[in-house]
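Go through this one:
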Amino acid sequence: MEPFPNLALVDGERVGAVSGATLDVINPATNEVIGHIPRCDERDVEVAVAAAKRAAPGWRSTEPQMRAAALLGFAETIAERGGELARLDSVDNGSPLHEMRNDIGLATSQIRYMAGLALEVRGRTMPETPGRLHYTVHEPFGVTARIIAFNHPLMFAATKIAAPLLAGNAVILKPSEFTSLSALAMGDDLQRLFPPGVVQILTGLGAEVGDALARHPGIPRIAFIGSAATGRRIQASAASSSVKTVTLELGGKNPIVVFPDADLDLAVEGAIRGMNFTWQGQSCGSTSRLLVHQDCYSDFVARVGERIAGMRAGPPLDPNSDLGAIVSPQQLDKVLSYIEIGKAEQARLVTGGERLREGPLAAGNFVSPALFADVDPAGRLATEEIFGPVLAAIPFAGYDEAVSIANSVEYGLTASAFTRDLRTAIAFSRDVEAGYVWINETARHFIGAPFGGVKNSGVGREEDLAEIESYTQTKSVNMRFD
């Protein structure tokens, strides 16, 4: 795989940071330094914003079909290079190769879907008054920034530039400092497909280049994927320089509720799938609170525990690995600290939760997936996002208690319920405080279904037409012609 891609993309050129500084690229499966990437800062942001401002008018005037064609070409390139890009992600973020290969397919499907919406961004006419014409148009912001998370590096890098580009904006992409390789690897293709300055990639620390993007007065539109705490900091930084439009896709402590009439076999599969163990539970949408009716609680928890105990953490490139490595030592320490919090809160550790220190896993960030039972619904294990492979099981007595527990946290991203009763399904989908709800299913995203959260899980929706429209501003035109 050497040499690793290690240059940013600024104004159509592959460059290092203005300062010359770099960050180590560390393989989380071994904690070995495998390369270096530019450590950009506010100086690089200034250069990129100036280039984006020069490029934006020309890109805005490009016909929507041509903008869509460029993105379709980008999707084809990703598909062609899928094996290489998936391997980069697996080495860079520690998730199993088979999962990163799935991300390639999801990315290309989403980009193609979004490109197909290019002509759907349209204004409307209003009932006229005598001698006048009233209509609206959608206009791009000009310069936008997208700051993405580490858990789906290529998928986020590729898909999250689609909406701002289709809307006619230039976009500056900032990948996570932990997982920048696949984004940088796309740089040559982006050079070929888009005019200089229309798409740029800056790598570096969130507290440096990310904060500089949020604060820059020349970037009126920002979107971020990551933790709620960082999202609030971005809102504050953005507001410090000018009025900006900021959308946030943040964390979750998402409930999966198993009602007594559920298909329990299906629900067991849903509990496993919903936790996203195959990328180490590192997903904002993971259903990490398992609420089970008391009549079937003990047997259900035992079945889920047996399944989790049979999962194998191993080297990310090993096709037999169910789980890979946690993305960084800091994140591993956080996961292990919550294992101790669960024990201190008197929750029952059914299985897992141990640092793996033997054989080829000894040097890496590996932990066995954990299930806690009899968790206090008000305790830290049940209310704080861990972003790791830790599932908390909680019994409930009836519908009202289940909904009360489900809604008792600060987050509201996803929720799932398993029931055969249509009335219960409709009631739960109405009563639960979440932006994305599954009934008798978990984890899957569906093309065209808007994704996003409520409460501290964020603001705004992505993955549909609303995302493209969010990168435009509505202008009302009122024309008198008598």
